[in-house]
Amino acid sequence: MLCKTVGIVLFLFLSGCAQSAKGLHPVILVPGDGGSQVEAKLDKPTTVHYVCTKKTDEYFSLWLNLELLVPIVIDCWVDNMRLIYNFTTRGTENSDGVIINVPGFGNTTTVELLDPSGASPGVYFKNIVEQSLIPLGYVRDENIRGAPYDFRKGPHELDYWFTDFKAMIEEAYQKNGNASVILLSHSMGGPMSLLFIALVSLAAPWGGSVKAWKVFAAGDDLGSYVLPAHTLRGAQRTYPSTAWLLPSKYFWGPEETLVSCPEKGNYTVMDFERFFKDMNYQAGYEMWKDTEALLGDHAAPGIEVHCLHGIGVSTVDSFTYTNGKYFPDKPSLVYGNGDGTVNVRSLRGCLRWASAREWKLKNDSKVVRTKTHRFVGNWRKKHFSAPETSPKIFHQEFPGVDHMEILRDKGVYDYVREVVSKMNKV
């Protein structure tokens, strides 16, 4: 048994077990949506534009590659990044002739810098590694590891990642003197880690986000006014991970209108089928059905949790259409509280575990028993003990810090460094 666990920041899990020779618990970085490098190799029968490359002999950087996000060329990027839903297998496939690789599993390079060129927009876990972990004596690829994955996919399609993730945790545990492992996650990496173990997280969307709904409708410009959201939508709405992050019925009530259009009526979290039918995108509804049971109604993780997130940043709360002719491409956005990406009620979802008395996988009829559920559930039961009493839930909000800035905020650096330091003294 890897010991009883204590979760903490970004997603740490740990406990009072033995420490490594250096006295440090190994840390594994679990990235969020868009938080892993993606490479592609092409042998395409056709292209969407004459400027697009049809065949390559080697893998090249697809995400993040700023050179590919320029006018006209961005159409090539979208076609290479998009997924195609298979209604028979209920899974997704790459565009014809596109082979995708997510490099760097096990090391930190590809989750510290998303752009291999080192361009500043691609800086991800790098600062928190250098400001919070290196000063404590941590060494990259020795007791700090990375767990990148294909963030386009839903967790039900990532069985191979959970298998590799399990092996890496066990290897890190054994190579570091049987010291329990700390998982440090950001954004969607929180729910990913929760499906596997339990957590402490940074800016995690425990109940989804209204912004994900807006992405299906109109796309997202990735925070850049020069990138066309409507063009990017061609890839973004094909991702099961986007469907997975749609607002959960456990966080939004059936009476709350999140989308409104005069000619089509109001939409709540109970109306995804009608919404996708109205926008003529059946694959979106099918992907939501595939992932809906994997978010929002989880049992308490059974570990000490440190839940960190920003607050007080304008965040899409709902959206409307003044005229049916604008549906779905041109919504008018209504803003509320959150971190700019995730709504505050979803960010605070970890507080729901504060009164939990037990830790277990749920066995009610609402949960779809996928292969991933069974694999993860069996491994958790084998290696972790349920707590006798409720674990502590530590919750810290950072006013004015947005979804990505939380990885670059000094207050967060200090918090993570202090908590990890205390863990290593246990």
From TrEMBL:
Keywords: Signal. InterPro entries: AB_hydrolase_fold, LACT/PDAT_acylTrfase. One of its GO terms (molecular function) is O-acyltransferase activity. Transmembrane segments: none annotated. One of its GO terms (biological process) is lipid metabolic process. It comes from the Eukaryota. Residues 1-20 form the signal peptide. It holds the Pfam family LCAT. PANTHER family: LECITHIN-CHOLESTEROL ACYLTRANSFERASE-RELATED. This is Group XV phospholipase A2.
